[in-house]
Amino acid sequence: MAYNVLWSLHKEFWDAFIYPNNVAQAKSINSDLFASNVIGRVDITRVFTGQELNTEYLFGLFTGQTLNAGAAALLGVPISYDIIHFAASSYVVSSQVVVNFNLSTMVIPVEVGTWITFDSNKKITQYDATFRRFDQVLDITVANVQKEIGASTSSAAVAYLTDALAKSVCNTVQTYCNGTNQQYTDTSSCYTTLTQTVRFGTAYELGRNTLLCRMLHQYMVPARPSVHCPHIGPTGGGMCVDDQTYADIVHQPLYTNAPMVPNGFASKDKNIAAQ
């Protein structure tokens, strides 16, 4: 593809990511920006496969309370972006984009780096995204909460967030996870599990056995309870689990739809034909 075509496709994605465009994308169920076999990874969470799951998480997570009224929103809503680095060749795009997230009481810029591949139909087939300096983003968010509630320490702010997020997740469970989708015996056991058994989580643990991970997944429960209720349950449903070591994640053989290193150059080249 021509350079200007790749630029336009890349910009089309980021335009769709910004609120309220992301709401329309999330409600579409299967975004037409993605190929049906799309594979994606976000460094602070985990791997997402398929059109529907990627639509839910790339767009649905950042719509505030639009898709799950009353859910505690810690992530903020993307309101604008600026492409600060961009390189493209053939079917591959690499970029750094600064996205401004509105957290109601403040706007915080977050730098997101991505590698994206497109197929001949101009659909996204793969992406690898990194939220740069997200540890600082989380620290700033906690500090802002600390200031809002007048807490003397960051630990007090985390305790406040733990209580608020656990109540939010448990409210989602009570509302949507019933019958065959039930996860806890009652609201009390849900709250106890999320505040005493499950850890709050660090900046890189939004895809591990943490409260922060369950906070993310609560937003998508109303869309598909049978799929997402287990993710906010006590087992983590294969999404909020401690199933990988650091080395496992780094060496994970993931991108098989198209190579991101030219054939003949990669040390473990699988000679996948370029599109």
Topology:
Layout: H1 3-17, H2 21-27, E1 34-42, E2 47-49, H3 51-59, E3 77-89, E4 92-102, E5 107-118, E6 124-132, H4 134-149, H5 154-176, H6 187-197, H7 211-218, H8 225-232, H9 246-250
Parallel strand pairs: 1-6
Antiparallel strand pairs: 1-2, 3-4, 4-5, 5-6
Helix pairs in contact: 2-3, 4-5, 5-6, 5-7, 7-8
Overview of the molecule:
Helix 2 runs antiparallel to helix 3 (51-59), helix 4 (134-149) packs across helix 5 (154-176) and helix 5 runs antiparallel to helix 6. Helix content is 37%, strand content 21%. With 275 residues, it is an alpha+beta fold. It has two domains: 1-132 and 251-275, Nuclear Transport Factor 2, Chain: A (Roll), CATH 3.10.450.50; 134-243, no CATH class. The longest helix is centred in the middle third of the chain and has 23 residues, at 154-176. It has a six-stranded mixed beta sheet.
